Amino acid sequence: MASVDARSVSPAPIARAIADATPPPIAPPDDSKTVWEREPALIEILRGRLEGLGPVTENGLGAPLGLAQGAVAGALAALEAEGTILRGRFSPGANDEQWCDRRLLARIHHSTIRRLRAEIEPVAARDFLRFLFAWQHVAEETRLEGPEALPVALAALNAFEAPARAWETEILPARIAGYQPSWLDAQCLAGRTTWARLSKPSGPADRARPAASVRATPIALLDRREAPLWMSLSSNAEAAQPSPRAEIVLECLTAQGALFFDELTAAARMLRSQVEEALSELVALGLAASDSFGGLRALLAPSAQRKPLNGGKRRGRVSPFDMESGGRWALARRAAPGLDEGAITETVAKTLLRRYGVVFFRLLAREGGFLPPWRDLLRVYRRLEARGEIRGGRFVAGFSGEQYALPEAIGLMREMRRKPASEEWVSLSGADPLNLAGILTPGPRLAALTGNRIVYRDGLPVATLASGKLEFLVPLDGASRSEAERRLIRSAARGLLVSFA
Predict the structure, then answer these.
(1) What is the C-alpha separation between 322 and 306, in angstroms, rounded?
(2) What's the sign of the alpha-carbon dihedral 13, 14, 19, 23?
(3) By CB neighbour count within 10 A (0-12 exposed, 13-18 middle, 19+ buried), where does 321 fall?
(4) Distance of alpha carbon 454 from alpha carbon 341, whole angstroms
(5) Extents of the domains making up the chain
(6) φ, ψ for residue 307 (rounded to 5)?
(7) CA distance 162 to 170
């Protein structure tokens, strides 16, 4: 029987159709000529009740009508098939299945989101930076320790591109006390982490001086399971134009697959130094990578300072890392076919949330240009908020546009807002993802170079070191100036030494 708008007819015939007892004689209006059967009448009564009750159980619908348990199941199924109502557990702590009118549920959901957003009190940019130092474990009291802490740090840094030289001299040591290169090698050789260039090479300058350019090549550390997904965002293959020697090495890797360095040298029929130079170029172009970070680490040292083959000796400072310690060399992992674009965008959106805890357009200025457009990320964040997985609102004051946060990040931000200033100093490389001067704070930006440095005090950038020139960003007394200078210069010296530690 076709659906009838119950509001246009008298309710008496409908009620009489489902009543188990004889109702009192009530004369229906003269214009009420519809003869109702039990099932259609029950559907119309439940439709009207659900429009005003909100989430309610099956028993909660049937009991006031004097109906036995299970008597309304068929009518509810018919309304669900129409798309009028939805089933689920909508009330907090509900154990039984509930039903709710679709439009009413949408209104309740939007009202809940507005209430949750109204509860949020935004923090100042300075407090947000203090939160980020704790979130990414660069604040002294939150720094990590031991090899088991490396996966925690890598999860926040997943797919962030930084100069190859900066990873083990600056970024990882800033987060993990006593960091050792062998810890990252173990992660790579266990198949949990890999490295690659994701951004498009800038042009001929990328291979003009391969040995030098590889140190500045933007390299990302990736969760190996997600590597094909991130590679699908890259367009390296179209832009790469290797030199003749690099082309020979590339052809060997294409034809024979992964090769150890000595196997690659024999297959290419070139000198060891020539293969090293070719690999440096291929890494700079994003076309090759090794099993462990050790292969890249060996290329970072000038050829005159690399560990000689077969235990030979070399004068001067010598890197303890050699090409043989890097495992096998292979083509950089390409994008797997059939990847869903929506799944790719959702993975990127969740990765950015893990990195910063809170995301908004301005904050992503340091991220690679290979990321999906902000409008695509917004669609994912809105969907995650609708599912209750993240929160939307105004978390950081002074920035326009939509903002989204992980629930666990909101509590930590509140704590930072209440925490009094403690003269906390944080010194970071310009290549660090938390080099956000000029992005979250007023003033000029600091170039994202390994040798540049910035020092914060209580979340406020106070001094920078760029191209050997020290600059104070705010007025400081004598003791504070000395402390800022000491932290900048000492940290820079540490960065130079770690590469050969």
Answers:
(1) 6
(2) negative
(3) buried
(4) 37
(5) 6-90+97-118, 139-331
(6) -60, 125
(7) 10
Q: Count other Cβ atoms within 10 Å, centred on residue 460.
A: 15
Q: What is the CATH number assigned to the segment(s) 6-90+97-118?
A: 1.10.10.10
Digit-coded pLDDT (tens) for 357-409: 999 999 999 998 889 999 999 999 999 998 889 989 889 988 989 999 999 99
Which segments of 343-467 are extended strands (E)?
A: 358-359, 391-393, 403-405, 425-429, 453-457, 460-466
Give the Cα-Cα-Cα angle 169, 174, 175 (nearest 5 degrees): 125
Q: Is 301 within 8 Å of 500 (Cβ atoms)? A: yes
And the tokens for 483?
Answer: 């402390």
**Strand locations in 153-231 (E):** 161-163, 176-177, 193-196, 218-223
Element (H, E) at 427: strand 425-429
Tokens (6 digits) for 269: 């029929």
Hey, which bits of 191-246 come out as E strands?
193-196, 218-223
Q: Residue 387 in contact with residue 109, Cβ under 8 Å?
A: no
Give the best-scoring range by mean pLDDT among 88-102, 172-186, 230-244.
Answer: 172-186
Cβ 413 vs Cβ 131: under 8 Å: yes
Residue 375 exposure: Cα atoms within 13 Å on the Cβ side: 0
Amino acid at 479: A
What's the CA gap between 431 and 166, in Å, rounded? 7
Q: Which of 396, 389, 494, 487 is nearest to 170 (CA)?
A: 494
Better-scored residue on pLDDT, 469 or 91: 469
Do 66 and 79 contact (CB within 8 A), yes or no? no
